[in-house]
Each structure stands twice: as structure tokens, then as C-alpha cells.
Write a structure and sequence with these properties.
- One of its GO terms (molecular function) is fatty acyl-CoA hydrolase activity.
- Keywords: Hydrolase.
- It holds the Pfam family 4HBT_2.
- The chain is α+β, with helices and mostly antiparallel strands.
- The chain has one domain: Hotdog Thioesterase (Thiol Ester Dehydrase, Chain A, Roll).
- It is 22% helix and 40% strand.
- A 5-stranded antiparallel sheet has the order 1-3-4-5-2.
- It starts with a strand and ends with a helix.
Length: 130
């Protein structure tokens, strides 16, 4: 399943160089992942009821094109791969002209809510992967 989230860059996201601060891209990606979970009906409370939380353990991001205040962006999120307890999402940030501004592979791990250790992904999450 692939999701898309549209946002507009706000003044508070701009750094002294006049473009989006690099840390804000990570926030955009987080919003995109939340959209992905919600589209799959895996809200936080649903996962918690299954005894699992997901935690991000690695983000490999490439910044391709600067983004400026007021630009309309689309953040896409799609599954790439899944292991026993970890999974990788491919995320991209596009500007209004359809230009790729950033892309990232984000690795997350299913964590047991009680033991706080990795555990196998629940079937409800696994079904979201090809």
C-alpha cells in the first residue's frame, strides 16, 4: 500500500539559509509514516492492543533539492521489505512541480510493549507488505 500526504511549508520550518532545515525533512517523513499506518488502520492504540509498538531504528535520507517557504509538498510512503521483526519503508518528498526533493529508507522494528524488546511483526502489520 502506498500513501500520499500533502503539506505546505510553514515559515517556522525555514533555516538561516532560506530553505527547509534538514531536521524538518525527518518530521515530514514521520508525518508520512503516520499517514501510512492510519491508511492501514493500524493506529497507535490498535498496535498497542496487539502488544506491539514500532520504533524507528535507522533513517537513510538523501537530500535532492532545496525546499522553500510556501511550497506545496507531497510525501509518499510505501513498503519496501519486511523481516521477522523489522521492516523498511521507502519515503519520498516531492515538490509541486513533481521534482524529487528527498528520498529515504526508514527501518523500524516491532517492539513488545511489555518487555521493550523486538518481537515478530503482528500479521496485521505484515499484511501491508508485498
Amino acid at each position: 500500500m502506498k500513501t500520499s500526504l500533502e503539506i505546505v511549508v510553514r515559515p517556522t520550518e525555514i533555516d538561516v539559509n532560506g530553505h527547509v532545515n534538514n531536521a524538518k525533512y525527518l518530521e515530514y517523513l514521520e508525518w508520512g509514516r503516520e499517514e501510512w499506518y492510519e491508511a492501514g488502520e493500524l493506529h497507535y492504540d490498535v498496535l498497542k492492543a496487539l502488544g506491539v509498538q514500532t520504533v524507528t531504528v535507522n533513517i537513510n535520507i538523501s537530500y535532492r533539492k532545496e525546499i522553500r517557504q510556501g511550497e506545496k509538498l507531497t510525501i509518499t510512503t510505501e513498503p519496501k521489505s519486511a523481516g521477522r521483526s523489522s521492516f523498511v519503508l521507502l519515503q519520498r518528498v516531492w515538490n509541486g512541480q513533481g521534482e524529487l526533493c528527498a528520498d529515504a529508507e526508514v527501518t523500524s522494528v516491532a517492539m513488545d510493549v511489555e518487555t521493550r524488546k523486538s518481537r515478530p511483526m503482528p500479521d496485521e502489520l505484515r499484511k501491508m507488505f508485498p
